[in-house]
C-alpha cells in the first residue's frame, strides 16, 4: 500500500456568503460515562452571532449528539426566519446520514428522519464538513452543554467565553492541521 503524504494546512472559520447564515454545530461525549452534549450557533457573513445554544443530552452516542446538534441548529435557524443556511459540522458520519436522508439507519432513524423533514422545508440549506479547528465556537458550546441540566438551553451570545471564540474567528485566527493529500 502506498504511503500517504501529509501536509500541514491552516484551518480557521470561513464566513458564509452575504445574505446567508452559517449554523455551526458540534457534539460531545464524555468517556467513560457516555454523557453527551451538543451545541451550536448561528452567524452572519460578518461573524456576528445571531443565536447560540447548548444541550445536555444524557447518554447517547457521539453520532446521535452530532445529529441532535444539527437538528437543534436547523430548528432555531428556521424559527428565526433564515432561509439561506450553511450547516457546518465536523462529523463526516453525521453528514453522510443527513445527505443520504435515509431512515434505514435504525440506531439514528428517528433523528435522521427529523433532520430530513427539516431539510425538505422551503429553504436552501447546504450541509458540509468543517475541520474541528474551524469549528471552535461550536466545540466550546457542546462542551458547555455538559454543565447544564438536561435539555436545550439558549446561550447568551454576549457571554465572555463565547465572545472570545467569535473574536478569534473574525480576526482570522487559524490553527494548523495535518491532512492526507
UniProtKB/TrEMBL annotation:
Domain RNase H type-1: 17-147
Family matches, as Pfam families: RVT_3
Coiled-coil region list: none
PROSITE patterns: RNASE_H_1
One function term, GO molecular function aspect: RNA-DNA hybrid ribonuclease activity
Name this polypeptide is given: RNase H type-1 domain-containing protein
Amino acid at each position: 500500500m502506498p504511503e500517504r503524504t501529509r501536509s500541514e494546512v491552516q484551518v480557521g472559520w470561513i464566513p458564509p456568503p452575504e445574505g446567508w447564515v452559517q449554523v455551526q454545530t458540534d457534539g460531545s461525549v464524555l468517556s467513560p460515562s457516555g454523557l453527551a452534549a451538543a451545541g451550536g450557533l448561528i452567524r452572519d457573513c460578518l461573524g456576528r452571532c445571531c443565536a447560540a445554544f447548548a444541550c445536555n443530552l444524557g447518554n447517547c452516542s457521539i453520532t446521535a449528539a452530532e445529529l441532535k446538534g444539527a437538528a437543534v441548529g436547523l430548528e432555531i435557524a428556521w424559527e428565526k426566519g433564515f432561509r439561506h443556511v450553511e450547516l457546518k459540522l465536523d462529523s463526516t458520519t453525521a453528514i453522510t446520514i443527513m445527505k443520504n436522508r435515509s431512515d434505514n439507519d435504525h440506531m439514528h432513524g428517528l433523528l435522521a428522519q427529523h433532520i430530513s423533514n427539516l431539510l425538505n422545508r422551503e429553504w436552501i440549506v447546504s450541509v458540509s464538513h468543517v475541520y474541528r479547528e474551524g469549528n471552535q465556537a461550536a466545540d466550546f458550546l457542546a462542551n458547555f452543554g455538559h454543565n447544564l441540566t438536561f435539555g436545550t438551553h439558549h446561550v447568551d451570545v454576549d457571554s465572555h467565553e463565547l465572545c472570545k471564540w467569535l473574536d478569534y474567528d473574525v480576526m482570522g485566527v487559524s490553527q494548523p492541521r495535518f491532512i492526507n493529500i
